[in-house]
Amino acid sequence: MATITACANDLGFNELFARNLSSLGNKKDMLIVMTTSGNSKNILKVLKQAKKMEIFSVGLLGNGGGKAKSLCDMHLTIKSNDTARIQEAHKFIGHIVCELVEKKYL
Which residue, of 9, 56, 78, 96, has the greatest Cβ tally within 10 A? Predict the structure, then answer.
């Protein structure tokens, strides 16, 4: 919480995720982003930072994918313009991923 507050206050919310990735990310990591529009500035910045750091990026997108689509190494774009439907689909996908990870490692 302190990192979110400090970074957002000192650098602006658009830098929040990219700044954290630059300090915590490693080449073998995977970045997963979710954005309904595909055009959120903070998401675009973190995807660009991931490219610089050679971190594989996966995007859960909506509304045609927006600008984020071309920045992701892999993406799943929900074919809807309805924010609620896109977010519901993203949540569902997140639950599936968690279940698969649990089955693999627990």
Answer: 78
